Model the fold of this input.
Amino acid sequence: MMRYELTQIPWLKRLLVSRWPLFLARAVTLAGFVLTTVAGLIGSPVGSHNFAIIFVWIAWWTFLKLIALPFGGRAWCSICPIPAMGEWIQQGALVEPGGKGLGLGRQWPKRLRNVWLPTLGFGVIGLFSAVTLTQPRVTGWVLLGFILLAAVLSLVFERRAFCRHVCPIGGFIGLYSRVAPVEVRVRDRSVCAEHEDKTCVTGNAHGYGCPWQASPVSLTQNTNCGLCMECLRSCSRDNIVVNLRPFGADLAQRAGRSLDQAYFGFMMLGSVVIYSAVMLGTWGNLKTAAYNVGTPGWFIYVGVLLAFTLGVLPGLFLLAVRAGRALARSKASLKKAFIAQSHAIIPLGLMAWVAFTISFAFVKFSYVWSVLSDPFGWGWNLFGTAQLPWTPYLSSITPLLQVLALLGGLVWTSI
Amino acid sequence: MTNTKYQTPALRAGASVTNIKFQIALVVLAIAVLVVPVPLTWAAPQERHVRIEASQFQFTPSVVSVNPGDKVTIDLTTTDVVHGLYVDDYGLNITADPGQTTRLTFVADKAGTFALRCFAPCGPLHPFMVGKLNVGPNWLLWRAMGVAGIAAFAGFWVLRK
Amino acid sequence: MATRGLKQEWLARLILALLLVAAIATPFAVQWIQADNSARNANATTIELRARMAENGGWSSDAINATVGQTLHLRLTSDDVIHSFAVGQTDWPVLDIKPGEVVTTDLVFDRPDRYTFFCTRWCGANHWRMRGLIEVTDPKSDTT
Done:
């Protein structure tokens, strides 16, 4: 059980326990989010010259997929601006616990305590992705919609209900965070056994009870832990730590496997296959069909996307599981076997998304420099870089990187 | 809590000597497939002339295949708005207005598969307007598929235990 | 909250407020500064002209007024594909308008007349419809 406890490093522990680093990070991301939304709504309608498109779909997406997610798991969730406003209102304070918050604090409906909503949410967003990725106005409205939805949910329901049960991004971040090399866990179980109060769950003067409702005392999977460090602050026995660990550690465990998670895995893998064909392929009619919402071509695209991700791909996998069961003459429940084995496609899905991101990220990254100087496409030149021409980066090795990523995923999955 | 909970099935299958030798053999084979150059000769370099029609948002034909060393001439025309052509890795580009034909001539000295991208903003899906230039067989693809096959085989082999 | 905690809380709120205000105010501040700069160019009227394919609306305004001798400062940008700007009856160079970029030009007319401006880079099937009128009047002479 290879684990290296990061919190044994004194300055690192102080950094994680203090509320200021995460607060400052969130304040910055929230300000950035506001600027991005404004840019999307009132800036130039040309995507390549609008801060919203370039920063959301290229800069942030690349950072998320290539760095934050594979190496940090739900690290982005800890600094995400979308729930920030709602959470601050809910808690009634920015940096000190114990404020008087606002909110009804209702319990999230039992039937929705899973990732079906995020799965469908991801699918629905995918139907409009060709338009969202290229039209600043649409991106602007989507961002605005998300932050308002999160705020409203924070005022009605308890804790981070949006993050855990609604956010499609959070859905796949949670799924893939199981392979990340970072985790928050209890140091010594026996200490918890003797601890009556379980302050990590209930909260105390030093920290709130887990906003993710992940029950730190019994946490064994990264899926629902948002790395917010509240439990490090509230645990009165100082028994919660942050560990460095090998990649993929959560996958070998039997806990935390469910049909909704399995289906999200298929949604992600199926989506990336379809997106690769439509966005990266050479067939213009596929792109136009995906873009022209409301046309017959678009409905066909919708049908194919949903059928493939929710029907064909899981169906094929089910057949494979069935065949495997027959070959092994196993009496185990088909459903259980399906769920358990579907989690093997998690690394494959992650690497497929990494490869997909690589294919456009470096090519289009040079837009970041010009958009920093002219975020709205209004002819500014704040830093002098507005006229930098588009230059694709690393185009010689990008295909190789993609291949290595995909192969890595395949090998990993096979293991 | 036993340690085996955190081990992959492969490890659990037992670290017998023959197993390790087999795994090493597979890895070596995979690396070989990926890296070893295959001596193949093809026809002497020839001159190729291709007419590419650009429209929103695709190139027709969208795939151009030549042999390494060929002298390639591309005539770019457009059917609707101003489009352009940029060849990945070669760094060459041309732009064509409707009604004009722009010509690009170059020697395909780099082997591999390269993207042809639209170089003039031509509408919302401009960033996704791509075509393909194949110079020689698509080695990367074949090699990758080879390694993928080996990986799949390895996966089955391990599960046999 | 303890007093020290309260101080920290208010500091945090201040920082957040500053960042948010900066995020929202920046675009408008910069716009205002820029407008100021071009207004300093006395005797100039600034007009922003957005170009779109004819199917999407064409020029944002197809009737512009100007006066003889007064500088007409034009800020041109495109919302979709490459367009260009040319003025008839003059030998002024044609300006390319690239999507998302702003190109500026100063025009001075020395004769009252009705000048046509149009797009010279093919931008779709209805490209020929992209035209407008600059009406130049002479303030000195009597015009009804």
In short: The radius of gyration of chain B is 23 Å. The beta strands of chain B are 47-55, 58-60, 63-66, 71-78, 83-87, 92-96, 102-107, 112-117, 130-135.
